[in-house]
Amino acid sequence: MNKKTRRIKQITRWLAIMMVCFLLFPAGSLAEDQVNSDEQTMETVTPDKMGTPPNEESEQGNQTPAEIETLEQVPEVNINQNTDQQIVVVYADSGEDNVKNLALTTDEVVSGEQVSNRVDLIEVSVETNVEALMADLAQNPNVLAVDNNAKIEVTALPNDPYVVNGSAWQFQRIGADQTWDQVSNGDPVVVAVIDTGLNVNHPDFVGNTVAGYDFVTGKTNVVDLAGHGTAVSGCIAAVTNNGVGTAGIAGLANIKIAPYRTGGMYSGDTQLDVAYICAAILKAAERPEVKVINMSFGGYGTFSSLAVAVNEAVSAGKVVVASSGNEGESWNARVGQYSYPASYDHVISVGAINKDNTRSSFSQYNDRVDLSAPGQSVLTTAKSGGYEYASGTSFSSPIVAGACAVLMAADAGLDAGAVETILKSTALDLGTAGSDAYYGSGLIQLNQAVASINSSETIGTTYRTHVQNVGWQIWKYDGQSSGTSGQSLRLEGIEIKMNNLGTDLGVEYQTHVQNIGWQGFKSNGQTSGTYGQSLRLEAIQIRLTGAAATNYDVYYRVHSQNYGWLDWAQNGGSSGTQGKSLRLEAIEIRVVPKGAAAPGSTNRPFIL
User: Fold this and answer.
1) At what angle do helices 304-315 and 274-286 cross, to 10 degrees?
2) Sign of the C-alpha dihedral computed for residues 322, 240, 409 and 440 taken in this order
């Protein structure tokens, strides 16, 4: 229920009360009483003449407080005052008045707002123990999460003139200048931008927006007083080839922005409200046309309500993208820490690079960073209707979100996992070889990602290994090496998945384990081997499954103790050693079209 609906219901209730009064006291009777008032006598009632009231405790100020049935019983909450007394409640199910199931009273609740049909914002009295109440509410079966309310900070060649003159350098750097007219889709792919709103009247957004919601005003007409949301949205879908300003990464693809305003009370305001953020994520997750959600904000606290909302969006199949944070300077107390929502599982965490393809000094880094994109001195749209340069992972995140939308526009069958895999497998590796904490899998290359969709190279593998003294390594792709070499560390377990992009193609594999032998086949991401038992892998067999298996060959080779890299095995053959007590130390896996040349020699893949 939005704020406008609440006001209408309140007015209706007062009109009903007035009507009852008129029925009980007709106008004529009242007039007659007034005319004949001089004939009336008034008896002064003294305490001696007063009878005992029906509810003696009520007269003495001990009336039992009313139970909250609806938040209309209390004033509307002011999100900028008494925030330490405000709590966010996320419900499991939709409902007009979920609050009535919380058994709260008017003594406890000072004010409130039904932000959406699954999120309430409640301010409790100063006499109420907030932590104890939250713990109690968390036990309610209809409550998914309850949090203190808080503020989260934002993390700040078509013919468009700024693109032509090179000011918008971000497009060339990620190959978007080669894809702007390569994707044409009928049904729009919608990106939900959860931020400070959007200047929908900006000339570079005309025709590129769909309905969103302004949780600050409770209206469908979204505004942007702060400016951050407009700048973020411009990176995604500023109109291309209109002869005005700049362009978004979407190019001519049919990609729209659904703006959700969750904060930004004045120009430059960088704070978003947790209750509004959660409600916006849940709303976006419900919309089938929304495929991607961008969140250019982050905090370092624990937000169970935010985690629940993000998980629902992931479960709904949305691609969820967030900025890694701006606390990457060596002097910052938060350097290297996890920022949320970027560091939640299944959220694509994006860091920023500059024109030199090096990490922007402010870009937060940790082992949760997935990808990098331009985020320093990026030209984008301004709330004034003009253009501005902006810096921060706030702007690298929407570039990746826009790239995800382009891929889904190019192939409507892609799911969130496939989109992430394509971007990672085609990224330009920066920093140390392989994925690292500073750049993730590297700088996105949209041209290569788009090209790969119609290429057989989109069929490939994703795999990771459990290494002695190291644990599970990060996921590797299509021929990359997983494990170690020259460190005398054994492989103990392995997980393999297919990047099949909708093709009926799976994978199964079995390992030969010290003291155990061949374990039996596992499939599609299951663990084969052991971990925590100090047992080495000695050999492996991998084969493809599914209707499309006849169209491809799988090749794999291992780095074996005392032998180094053995030759390539294929399609279920054994790779490694048996009966020699030699550990596997690394593995590479590739899938190629049936009949294509092997990656290398196949003479000696297995040694008995």
Assistant:
1) 10
2) negative
Considering the candidates 195, 204, 411, 478, report the single residue annotated as catalytic.
Answer: 195
Q: Is the pTM of this model over 0.70?
A: no
Question: So what's the pLDDT on residue 31?
Answer: 34
Q: Where are the beta strands (DSSP E) in 95-212?
A: 109-116, 119-124, 143-148, 151-154, 189-195
Mean pLDDT of 425-451: 89
515-540 average pLDDT score? 93
pLDDT category at 49 given cuts 50, 70, 90 is very low
Kindly state the tokens that stand for 33: 């009483």
Q: How many alpha carbons lie under 13 Å from residue 543 in its C-beta half-sphere?
A: 11
3-state helix, strand, coil in the chain (%, to 5): 25, 30, 50
Q: Give catalytic status of residue 367 as yes or no.
A: no
CA–CA separation, 258 and 384 (whole Å): 19
Q: CB-hemisphere CA count at 13 Å for 226?
A: 21
Catalytic entry in 228, 466, 512, 559: 228
Q: Is 228 a catalytic residue?
A: yes
Annotated active-site residue 394? The verdict is: yes
Query: What does the pLDDT read at residue 58?
Result: 40
Paired tokens of 52: 């005992």
pLDDT of residue 378: 87
Tokens encoding 112: 């409130």
Q: Cα 321 vs. chain centroid, distance in angstroms?
A: 5
Between 97-111, 241-255, 301-315, the lowest mean confidence (pLDDT) is in 241-255
| CA–CA distance, 436 with 48 (Å, rounded to integer) | 86
For residue 181, the tally of other CB atoms under 10 A from its CB is 13
How far is the C-alpha of 250 from the C-alpha of 193, rounded, in Å? 14
Strand partners, 301: none
- Are 434 and 237 in contact by the 8 Å Cβ rule? The answer is no
- CA 572 vs CA 114, 553, 575: distances in Å: 58, 10, 9
Residue of 324, 339, 343, 394 with catalytic role = 394
Find the Cα–Cα–Cα–Cα dihedral 466, 471, 473, 479, rounded to 10°: -20
Pick the closest to residue 123 from 136, 109, 134 (CA basis). 109
On the question of pLDDT at 63 being above 80, the answer is no
Distance CA 564, CA 585 (A): 9
**Percentage of the chain lying above the pLDDT 70 cut:** 83
Q: What value does the mean pLDDT take over residues 383-406?
A: 93
Tokens describing residue 388: 């501005």
Contact (CB, 8 A) for 131 and 83: no
* Distance from C-alpha of 511 to C-alpha of 575, rounded to nearest angstrom: 10
| Count of residues in the chain | 608
Classify strands 290-295 and 606-607 as parallel, antiparallel or unpaired. Answer: unpaired
Pairing between strand 460-467 and 471-472? antiparallel
Nearest 5°: phi and psi at 137? -65, -35
Geometric angle at alpha carbon 61, from 56 and 63, rounded to 5°:
70
Residues 62-78, mean pLDDT to the nearest whole number: 87
- Given a contact cutoff of 8 angstroms between Cβ atoms, the answer to whether 369 and 430 are in contact is no
